[in-house]
Amino acid sequence: MLFGVPIVQIVLFGFALSNEIKDSNIVIVDNAKDLASQQIINKIASTDYFKIKKMLPNSSQIDAAFKSGDIKLAIVFPENFYTDLLHTNKAQIQVIADASDPNTATTLTSYINIIIADYQAQLNKDLNIPPEQINLDVRMLYNPDLKGAPNFVPGVIAMVLLLVCVMMTSISIVREKELGTMEVLLVSPFKPILVIFAKAVPYLVLSLINLTVIIILSVLALNLPIKGSILLLYAVSTLFILCCLSLGLLVSTAADTQQSAMTLSLVGMFLPTLMLSGYIFPIENMPWVLRMLSNIVPAKWFYIIIKSIMLKGLGFSYIWKETLILFGMTVFFLTLSLRNFKTRLE
Fold first, then answer.
1. Which residues sit opposite 93 in a β-bridge?
2. Are strands 90-98 and 73-77 parallel, antiparallel or unpaired?
3. pTM to 2 decimals?
4. Shortest CA distance to 110 belongs to which of 39, 21, 32?
5. Checking CA distances to 317, which of 29, 39, 130, 345 falls within 20 to 30 Å?
6. Residues forming CATH 3.40.1710.10 domain(s) in the chain
7. What is the pLDDT of residues 168-221, one digit of tens each?
8. Residue 148 and residue 157: Cα distance in Å, rounded?
9. Measured between alpha carbons, how far is 317 from 327 in angstroms, rounded to an integer?
10. Whole-angstrom Cα distance, residue 159 to residue 261?
11. Distance of alpha carbon 7 from alpha carbon 304, whole angstroms
12. Which of 93, 87, 85, 117 is nearest to 26 (CA)?
């Protein structure tokens, strides 16, 4: 603990986890198809900040690209872009950003602004003419006011539900094992699985109450509208709660004391949720090892789902893949925890 923890923290925060944004997927609509637009596209593609996901034929496909969740930014070149630039010394480029994460959106638009300014400086130097002016028409989707609440509220929901379900469920069951009363419960007329479910149900109800309180506070105090279906939001949240309860049961099979259960919950669940869910650190900027590890963190998928429902107003057809992954994790963790739990107590 004395020597290992500092080393792990230095490696994680100094190398793996970074707020710097790189390799962000973008789409481009090039209506101009001229020399200037091609030069700017090449300049964007040559940086480490952007990765051109697709060249779209028209602007009507941009909305679907954002709803898919694969892109962070869209760039649209108008027709006659280079002609307008040479003859009127003015031209415009539209930049559309996913502002559900306002920090990422602001940073990416700043990168584009710097690239365009550098291109203009080079163009003025090569042509030796008065400075051309390329204006950026910036549009922020889903969060035009760039408020912080739309970003942190989904993350807070994920953390609160995970902590309540995993920690309290594992501690509750381990307490019974510590006191020696779990064996008394298991020899009662009730089946062992009913005893375990009875310990988990109160935290399911409590988590739903916490979810309701957070949503009410978000709407009334933070002016955060819920754009999607409330029923779908509660259904997916219930699935995530069940997944966390299954993890709590799994932790209880490995812990013999309440202190060890709390330590396993914090280290094994809270830290991965904080670091690998995409809530604070962009996952696409992490080394591939951490990107792979993030796929087994349930909060990552729940964070994507709840942002899609709350901020983008998307329906089940857009989040079914993430929901299916979360359902598979729930079944896996529940099966594993119940099998291990029964083996330990027999």
1. 136
2. antiparallel
3. 0.82
4. 21
5. 29
6. 16-141
7. 888 887 887 777 777 777 677 777 677 777 878 888 998 899 899 989 988 888
8. 15
9. 16
10. 17
11. 31
12. 93
User: Is residue 73 within 8 Å of 96, Cβ to Cβ?
Assistant: yes
Q: pLDDT tens, 66-82?
A: 988 888 999 999 998 88
Pair of tokens at residue 290 = 């951490």
Domain spanning 16-141 has what CATH number?
Answer: 3.40.1710.10
Distance CA 61, CA 320 (A): 21
